[in-house]
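IclR family transcriptional regulator structure dump, as promised
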Amino acid sequence: MGQPSSTGQSSGIGVVDKSVAILGTVAQAPRTLAELVDATGLPRATAHRLAVALEVHRLIARDAEGRFVVGPRVGELATSLPDPLVAAAGPILAWIRDECGESSQLFRRDGNERVCIAAAERATGLRTTVPVGSRLPLSAGSGAQVLCAWAEPSSLGHVLEGAEFTARSLADVRRRGWAQSIGQREAGVASVSAPVLDAGGVLLGALSLSGPIERLGRNPGQRFAPVLVTGARRLAAALG
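structure tokens r here:
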């Protein structure tokens, strides 16, 4: 019998379910082998064997600290799908990166998580890498704030119970049109995000900029929000 994957479902094919469990786990956060074993419940030898196999196929990679992370093949597969939002986002993300000198991302909500569906990374120096396909919690970070601020309150369920922000702060985010985060999701990292809205005001995604606090500062919104808001408007216009 297969083991439940990261989706909680079992296909009956053990090696597939275990591999999906590993992919889902590293998509949430970088993992050491020990952390991978704890998160998946797999035997150490099995987790290592499957992770290395996935690494060969570039579905998993290693970061600078040797932890398992989502590999580049996941992003390549994702971007090969016909998604108008992703296709239109490429030039906008590159423009934001070049204007601000920091990595930029586009997030879309998926249940109680947000998924990075497109990104433009800073080429050199210290940077915050969020690979395409990464799944992050909806409870912290400027991108999460935007996705929650423009969501129907009834759709948030228990998200706000463990969140780093409140319903009141989300109202402030919606009023000013952007959000900022200083060490909220990850220590030492700051970010700014703005909503991408269609002509009817429906949220399509969150456009974000992230980088070290030492470069973005303690009030990054004041400096970078105008670029993010302009980029979000351009992206919406590109979609017609």
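The longest helix spans residues 220-238.
lmk if u need the other ones
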